[in-house]
Design goal:
single chain; alpha+beta; Heat Shock Protein 90; 12 helices
């Protein structure tokens, strides 16, 4: 049964042709019966009209405009040739319905006009077809036929409206699905960028601390065993901290559930951990002047993490590019509506490609990450050479929009 339905749905002309054949045979039978009882008008003309109507029904969906014209031409021929109404005239109802289903509104209105006129014209052309019918009954008959034609047009127009509505729903659903896919891709890209920033900050800072401590330990290995032991202790602690943060980031990548306890998760660092960060950097031999201005107060987590990463990256860059005998300064200033982070050094500064707009040849990724972090919280970042030598990073992180 399903195969038959699918076949008929794929070949609508065959279905229409079957019903056209039924109308044609009914009309031929009517002509034959009326011919025996005194059918008025040549039988061949009636058969020709029936064939026209059958053609209209058969190809109504394939060529509705042409079939409507053919129906009008067949109707005019029927009037002129004096062929009384036949069962095949049901084709007018069918073509009216079909045209009303289409999107051509002008053609639909033309079909409606023909539907309104056809019953009246038919009654005026053949007034004596129903013998013994009173004028009132004739008017009622005309109204009934007119209403039938109008209903055919209304049903077709309603079907057109429903199809348009369903098409709009499908288009909207497809558009929403596309938007969801786009948002999902954007979310994935944003998450990858966030993890890349985190990985860079964790690896760059902790590995640089470990390298500095390892170099110092190798230098004083024979002459100062206690300093060597302290350096190794710092390397061990820094390495563990790096591994812990790496596990947390890998857990995000793998989609593991924190509640499962399979990984060691730690809170995101904030301004309260800056003192520990500065002490860690001081242990590597880099003097840092750290000061907080204003009254500390709770900050949004995004602002806290951004401030911490800015200071972390700035001090890492100072160790890498500042040169010998460099000193650093870190300032946090709590304002009424913003947190200002200032990190600068008095070293030899950095080349322009390290702090340009997007870096070059893979350089300057840390500052690129800074700009992205600051941009996400609606802040402003300035990075460049410091007057008098050295390098300066200044960030203004608004608080009102993030509370």
């Amino acid at each position: 049964m399903n195969r038959l339905y699918d076949f008929l749905r794929r070949h609508p002309t065959w279905v229409d042709g079957f019903w056209a054949f039924v109308l044609l045979m009914s009309s031929f039978l009517t002509i034959a019966v009326q011919g025996e009882t005194g059918y008025e008008g040549p039988e061949l003309r009636g058969m020709a009209v029936s064939l026209v109507h059958a053609a209209v029904v058969t190809w109504r969906r394939a060529a509705p405009r042409k079939m409507l014209g053919l129906a009008f031409a067949g109707g005019l021929f029927q009037l002129v040739a004096d062929v009384p109404p036949l069962p095949s005239n049901f084709a007018f109802l069918i073509i009216t319905f079909t045209v009303a289903c289409g999107t051509d509104r002008g053609l639909s209105r033309l079909a409606l006009a023909g539907a309104l006129l056809a019953p009246t014209v038919s009654t005026l052309r053949w007034p004596g077809e129903a013998e013994g019918e009173t004028p009132v009954e004739t008017v009622v008959s005309v109204l009934f036929l007119t209403i039938a034609f109008c209903l055919a047009w209304v049903l077709g127009d309603s079907l057109r409206t429903r199809r348009a509505y369903y098409a709009e729903l499908e288009e909207r659903a497809a558009r929403l699905e596309q938007e969801r896919e786009t948002q999902a891709r954007m979310a994935v890209a944003a998450e990858r960028a966030r993890i890349a920033r985190e990985l860079h900050d964790v690896v760059a800072h902790n590995v640089s601390v470990m390298v500095v401590q390892a170099d110092g330990a190798a230098y004083v290995l024979d002459t100062a065993p206690e300093q060597t032991r302290n350096a190794l202790h710092t390397i061990s602690g820094t390495g563990r901290q790096a591994l812990t943060e790496m596990r947390r980031l890998l857990g995000v990548l793998r989609g593991e559930d924190p509640a499962a306890g399979s990984l060691d998760y730690v809170p995101q660092p904030g301004v309260e951990q800056l003192a520990d960060l500065v002490d860690q950097v001081r242990d590597t031999g880099l003097p840092v002047d750290f000061r907080i201005d204003g009254t500390p107060r709770p900050l949004p987590s995004g602002v806290e993490l951004t401030a911490y990463r800015i200071v972390q990256e700035a001090l890492t860059n100072t160790r890498k590019h500042g040169g010998p005998d460099v000193g650093a300064t870190v300032r946090l200033e709590y304002g009424s509506d913003a947190l200002t982070v200032l990190a600068e050094d008095d070293g030899r500064g950095a080349q322009h490609e390290l702090y340009g707009e997007r870096g070059a040849d893979g350089l300057g990724q840390g500052l690129i990450g800074m700009r992205e972090r600051v941009g996400m919280v609606g802040g402003v970042l300035k990075a460049g050479p410091r007057p008098g030598g050295g390098f300066r990073i200044s960030a203004t992180l608004p608080l009102a929009a993030n509370d």
